[in-house]
Amino acid sequence: MFGFLNLNKPFGWTSHDCVAKTRKVLRLKRVGHAGTLDPAATGVLPIALGKATRLLQYLPGEKAYKATIRLGVRTTTDDLQGEIITQQPVTGLTLETVKTALQKFEGKIEQIPPSYSAIQVQGKRLYDLARKGEIVEAPVRTVEVFKMEILDWREGEFPEVDVFIACGAGTYIRAIARDLGTVLETGGTLAALQRTASSGFKLADSLTFADLEAQLQAGTFQPLPPDAALQHLPFVSLSATAAQKWCQGQRITKQDNSSAEILRVYAEDERFLGIGKSNGDVLIPTLVLI
Question: In degrees rounded to 5, what are phi and psi of residue 233?
């Protein structure tokens, strides 16, 4: 089996849980995922099957989310799974004020990841340190938010705002929720999160585990093609002779004028052969899948 599964991750499961379940259901050893999702988050989790695990490094980093941010509350994990640090009813806050504050989070922004996160500091993951009571602040990182749009606003003692967020790789939505609360001087935490797109895969096309098992039982399951999530990369098509040499690990003279460094490589019969690296007028085999 060779390709991708666009999985709709269930609530409460870790990304590792999803990989283990996929291995069991498909009876497949080589399984990997792109873009970790917290257990409390749901939505798109791209799963690579078989040799497609070697393509994970080439997937695009853009992601999109629907997030619910609760104001007036701060927690240890920056979401509702953590212990409450402060909780104070919010008064006098308007939607217009929230909208203005959210504008500060568009574009390239500096962000401190949550203390409970998978980021490594001195070789140790922050969540492991945090669980031992050792709170270590992660280094500030620059991330990019392409678009932020308010979807809904609910007033009350602890108002909630639903936000659509399109962003680049490495962006922590929990950190945005926390920092929005800081800007508004109310405190804030992430109440719910659904990833609606990741690495070229969309929620509307995703499968739950129940869907997957039903398709397997009916004999209709087909992995998505291995190049399905690589459409952001330019491609080159090789003649039969050039394709044979390239698949044998030989450098060949480029047969196009593309200036791109990383290319999808196809045979003339449209078979996907792998990933090549362009160096001047030479195409170098980087990842051969045939």
Answer: -95, 135
Are 42 and 67 in contact by the 8 Å Cβ rule? The answer is: no
What is the number of alpha carbons within 13 Å of residue 191 lying toward its C-beta?
16
Helix 209-218 to helix 15-26 angle (10° resolution) is: 10
Alpha carbons within 13 angstroms on the beta-carbon side of residue 243 total 18
Active-site annotation, residues? 38
pLDDT digits (tens, 9 = 90+) for 185-200: 999 999 999 999 999 9
C-alpha distances in angstroms, 79 versus 4, 89, 99, 175, 258? 30, 17, 21, 9, 45
Residues 167, 142 contacting (CB under 8 angstroms): no
Question: For the segment 248-278, what is each residue's pLDDT rounded down to a tens digit?
Answer: 999 999 877 677 899 999 999 999 999 999 9
pTM of the model: 0.90
One-letter amino acid identity for 12?
G
Long-range contacts of 282-287 (CB under 8 A, 24+ apart): 282/251, 282/252, 282/253, 282/254, 283/236, 283/246, 283/251, 283/252, 283/253, 283/254, 283/255, 284/251, 285/246, 285/247, 285/249, 285/250, 285/251, 286/262, 287/54, 287/55, 287/58
CA-to-CA separations, 68 to 77, 80, 88, 176, 255, in angstroms, rounded: 15, 11, 18, 11, 50
Which string of b and e fits 180-203 if b means at least 16 CB within 10 Å? bbeebebbbbbbbbbbbbbbbbeb
Tell the residue number behind the tokens 């044979």, with chain if given: 244
C-beta separation of 125 from 119 below 8 A:
yes
